[in-house]
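Side project, low priority. Logging it here so it doesn't get lost.
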Amino acid sequence: MTGGHEYNLEPRTLAFAKRTRLFVRRSPKTLGVIEDGRQVVRASGSVGANYIEANEALSRKDFLMRIRICRKEAKECRYWFDLLENAVASEHESERQSLRQEAHELMLIFAAILRSAQEGAKDAQA
């Protein structure tokens, strides 16, 4: 569906979701961390799940929608990791920053895939 390009982000998005779960499990169990942790766990898993769905898309429109969702969920992960900034112990801060950076990179990757797919659609129409 990607115009001849193959993006194998499944292992990367799976690793991101697993690292996120481990990070949340190791975090303090305050009300804020529990609630924000639930949100970031959901969003991190959604990135990979929607990427799998995008690769199985039956139409270009479906593919583009799923990639947009991937980008949105990665962006949401960044937000939740920002909220967790002051809530985690200092020994976990570097992992929080690393996960936030991974969410940012995934967001940029999905934005690039989206641009490329949209440009490919315009070229095909021309």
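Brief comment: Confidence is low (pLDDT under 50) at residues 1-5.
Revisit when time allows.
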